[in-house]
Amino acid sequence: MATVKDLFSKNLRQSGIVIAFVAIVLLFTVLTGGTLLNPTNVSNLILQYSYILILAIGMLFVIVVGHIDLSVGSVVALVGAVSATLIIKQGMPWYVGVIAGLLVGLAIGAWHGFWVAYVGIPGFIVTLSGMLLFRGMTFLVLGSVSLSPMTSEYQQIANGFLNGLLGGYGYDLFTLLIGVFAVAGFAWTQWRSRRARIRYEQEVEGLALFVAKLAAVAVVVMFFAWKLATARGFPIVLIVLAVLIITYSFLAKNSIYGRHVYAIGGNINAAMLSGVKVKRTIFWVYVHMGLLTGIAGVVFSSRTNGAQPAAGNMFELDAIAACFIGGAAVTGGVGTVIGAMIGGLVMAVMSNGMQLMGVQTSIQQIVKGLVLLLAVAFDIWNKRRAAAAKA
């Protein structure tokens, strides 16, 4: 059985980011006089940064295969522009705008995937081109003016709550039950994973440490659920985000596609020799990125109740930062969906905390830049430490 020291030394990157996240939450809770963990603020934090977390899921797979996507901010703007034009100008139902936005995202993902995978142009160049191309298309679609408001149904995607389904207690019981089910599901999957590792004679942590880990997760999840239950209930956008996290976590860990993605990022030549269809896999990575960008574009335009030519500015950098802070390696082949989510939450808590403190935007950007730099530096140091230990 692995000890606490062994567990941390073997996965220092992930352990470190979890500890850092908890420390940042505690720090800004103190600095804001408890406002950070105010139920309404916790709810607002989810609504304000959900689209960045959605983008981070797709960006993680792109980074794992050794590429990058610099166009997601422009694509978010274009998706919002297309949806707003159909709903506001053409009078189409809200769901037509959603479907059109997703199709735009898919088409752009296929466009990028074709040039990167089959033509062989680096993703950096292709998506840098896309950043300019799709921003220009956004201005053309909108005629360089903003469009608003969206229909009330469309606004509910990112601003709506499931509240009062089991109310009457001074809090939303439905939200608490969702938290209970989430804890139970996590515990069940972890127990199955532990039993499988024992069956194959792989090293696992001691039972006491395993139970302590589950208890810690249960406390955090239920605390989070309580904050939502005593505010406005369960955000609809959190359902969308949860479905995406579960789906893409499964794809990363339990699918042939996921194994191929990590194989390509780890060693592309070895992957080719092993029979991995590298071009097809990279193509589909960008298609998935396009789909998730389309979802993020719908969520963002719903949140802002309209479309603006300059929407999505710097979103790509926030998504990339979330992945690297959450444990993705610069060289590819390493990273998890959960890690990217934690990295995104680190950025969200920092931004929200500094806003509550009244810190200037310029200072906020400086802090974010330094955090990203330190995260990448830590990744490089950790690799060198591991290489030195093997030598």
From TrEMBL:
<comment type="function">
    <text>Part of the binding-protein-dependent transport system for D-xylose. Probably responsible for the translocation of the substrate across the membrane.</text>
</comment>
<dbReference type="GO" id="GO:0022857">
    <property type="term" value="F:transmembrane transporter activity"/>
</dbReference>
<dbReference type="InterPro" id="IPR001851">
    <property type="entry name" value="ABC_transp_permease"/>
</dbReference>
<dbReference type="Pfam" id="PF02653">
    <property type="entry name" value="BPD_transp_2"/>
</dbReference>
<keyword id="KW-0997">Cell inner membrane</keyword>
<keyword id="KW-1003">Cell membrane</keyword>
<keyword id="KW-1133">Transmembrane helix</keyword>
<dbReference type="GO" id="GO:0005886">
    <property type="term" value="C:plasma membrane"/>
</dbReference>
<keyword id="KW-0812">Transmembrane</keyword>
<keyword id="KW-0472">Membrane</keyword>
<keyword id="KW-0762">Sugar transport</keyword>
<keyword id="KW-0813">Transport</keyword>
<protein>
    <recommendedName>
        <fullName>Xylose transport system permease protein XylH</fullName>
    </recommendedName>
</protein>
